[in-house]
Please model this.
Amino acid sequence: MVDQANQLRERVMQKKSKKERRQTRTIAVTSGKGGVGKSNFTLNFALGLIRQNKKVLLFDGDLGFANVDVLLGRSPKETIATMLEKDLSVWDIIEEGPEGLLFISGGSGFNELFRLDEQRMDKFFKELSVLQGVVDYILLDTGAGLSYENLRFILAADDVVLVTTPEPTSITDAYSIVKMVHAKDPNVHLKLVVNQCTNDKEGHDTIANFQRVTEQFLEKKLGALGCIPSDGNVPSAVKKQSPFLLAYPHCDASQAIHRITGEYLQLPVPYKLGLKGFLLKMLFK
Ligand SMILES: Nc1ncnc2c1ncn2[C@@H]1O[C@H](COP(=O)(O)OP(=O)(O)OP(=O)(O)O)[C@@H](O)[C@H]1O
Ligand SMILES: [Mg+2]
Model:
């Protein structure tokens, strides 16, 4: 276990001189309604970023549900919860997925995070902040809805991707998230992704309508990364426990992920808290 963790640490930190330290940026992926495709999006977006030569760590923060593990057909023994319980290092709980994707599972009991005693909170901060400068992006797959925990993640991240489908129920719930987040902090960088669209027109219309409503009622111009079609290869890949970007690299959903990744990477990066800022804001604010 210790050897394995050391090997992973050495491999990840390899060739990383001070000059090469990465600008770690945190991205929370959330939705109003559950089951809209957040976990599939997060995993495949992570792989899309890796294809663009980025180093990515995926953090499964969906409290109680080990979504990403299931999508990858993995069941990590160690999680954030056991790291705190057994006094492990962060390297003991990082798993290596396909294409060099790193991932951490929250584990059951992770929802206790915001109720930890000071000593455990410090341990969590100390261990996680080691990753600052080591990866380019930390993607956080959050739960759906407006729970206290979700809001903490959203308000602490550098970017927030809000996933919705074109269905009115999903849009209404997504709008509630925007309203709540906007009330807490109007500077949060929310970016919309519309998943499971019948066609491109439906996706683009959904984005345009959503942007119009937020502009009209909140005076907020909501960013958008694009839309993903409804694609039968997605559930097929889920059944195979393989990310669709790898199982069906040329399918419509995979092509959409590449477009969205390209769109994300060319956005200006106006401000950045980085990982330490994220942890401080999430834990102590
Ligand atoms: N673009 C798509 N085309 C077809 N099916 C999709 C698409 N995206 C997701 N799905 C299907 O929708 C279901 C839910 O996806 P996923 O688990 O990613 O959602 P989620 O938002 O993470 O759910 P939860 O809120 O429960 O965590 C899956 O069965 C998946 O196969
Ligand atoms: Mg999920």
